Amino acid sequence: MNIKQLPSFKYHPDPIASGVFVKSDSVCPVCNQNNGYKYVGPFYAFTEVENICPWCIKNGKAAEKYDLTFVDEDEIDSVADEQAIEELTKMTPGYFFPQGDTWPAHCDDFCILLGGAKVVEIEDKLSLLTKDLEFIKERLEITDDMLLKDLTKDNSPLWWILFKCKGCDSYKLIADYE
Ligand SMILES: [Zn+2]
Ligand SMILES: [Zn+2]
Fold first, then answer.
1. Domain-terminating residue out of 96, 129, 149
2. Is the predicted pLDDT of residue 137 greater than 70, yes or no?
3. How many domains would you assign to the chain?
4. CA separation for the pair 105, 168 (Å, rounded)
5. Mind listing the pLDDT tens digit for each residue in 76-99?
6. Beta 37-39 vs 105-106: how paired, if at all?
7. Integer CA distances (angstroms), 175 to 5, 11, 67, 88, in order
8. 3-class DSSP state of 8
9. Which domain holds residue 169?
10. What is the pLDDT of residue 155?
């Protein structure tokens, strides 16, 4: 068995934890190899493509071959650097979310996706997230109590994803009901 170190993605450090890379025996349609993993996350393309491997995301060949993006270009925050946009949309695995996928930016670069697996992670950051929490409450039309309850309970219907700025200590939170 050919065990390779998974490529690293600066905006999405742990695609296995976020569930978009899974172990696989299938052959990647781009490099025609079985690399042990395939991408099962969202993508935006004109054709259905399956079994893309992490390496063909990283080197941009999957995006090039199928003219696709893994993150929706129309939904992301804006940054000035065209290369950063290219890297995020075409060379970074997307993530699962109920209503499309935005990608927050701060300090003129895209934030790092930390994921939504650990509630504890967010509890001590709530004071840093006031603006985002206000925005979420308003958009979902829910109260403080409802939001906190749904953020902290197990198997909550509320999905949330925490991002961190690469340039400063800011966090960004997005949340939506499934
Ligand atoms: Zn491949
Ligand atoms: Zn920042």
1. 96
2. yes
3. 2
4. 11
5. 999 999 999 999 999 999 999 887
6. unpaired
7. 32, 18, 29, 20
8. coil
9. 112-177
10. 81
